[in-house]
Amino acid sequence: MSAHLSLQHLDAVRSVVRGLLLQVLPTIDTAQDAVKAMSELVAAVHETASDTYEAWNARKSKSLARLLPVEILAGVFEALSDNDIGTIFGVSRRWRKIALRTPILSSHITLRQQRNQLDSGLRRREYLGTVLARSGGVPLRLTWRSDD
Asked: 56 with 84: CB under 8 angstroms?
């Protein structure tokens, strides 16, 4: 059985989006701001669709991990060792989203200086920027490792 939105559902979605844009666009001064607002709307619709799909999928899934509330999974993730935390980002979209929304998981920064390797300052800055953004306001731990 093929599942598609009916014309009635598509019209309802279009009506809601049109209404939102008609509310927001009069408050925008430049075309660049209008494009940004529309991009934010598309991102919000995409995130809502993804969340809704994951909720539907969780109802259909018999996996215990799918049935656990976000708070429980986040607590389990916090108990993992630093070496295991990276693994949870690749398990599923749901786990990745939970991990990204759990700042403590990004609070440990490990920097490595390896012998016979040129230091990639740009890559290191990108890494630090990502970790700092994800960690929010939680205290940070810094580890420096060297091959020497």
From this structure: no
Answer for the pair 145, 110: CB distance below 8 angstroms, yes or no: yes
Q: Of 80, 73, 145, whose CA–CA distance to 107 is shortest?
A: 80
- Give the contacts of 101 (CB within 8 A, at least 6 positions apart): 70, 74
Contacts (Cβ under 8 Å, ≥6 apart) of 138: 103, 104, 107
User: What separation in angstroms does the CA of 89 have from each of 33, 57, 106, 131?
Assistant: 33, 19, 12, 14
- Please give the chain's pLDDT, 148 residues, in tens: 345 777 887 888 888 888 888 888 888 888 888 888 888 888 887 787 777 777 777 676 666 667 778 888 888 888 887 778 878 888 888 888 888 888 888 887 777 766 555 556 667 777 778 878 888 888 888 777 776 6
Residues 6+ apart with CB under 8 A from 14: none
| Whole-angstrom distance, CA of residue 144 vs CA of residue 109 | 9
Tell me if the pTM is above 0.70: no
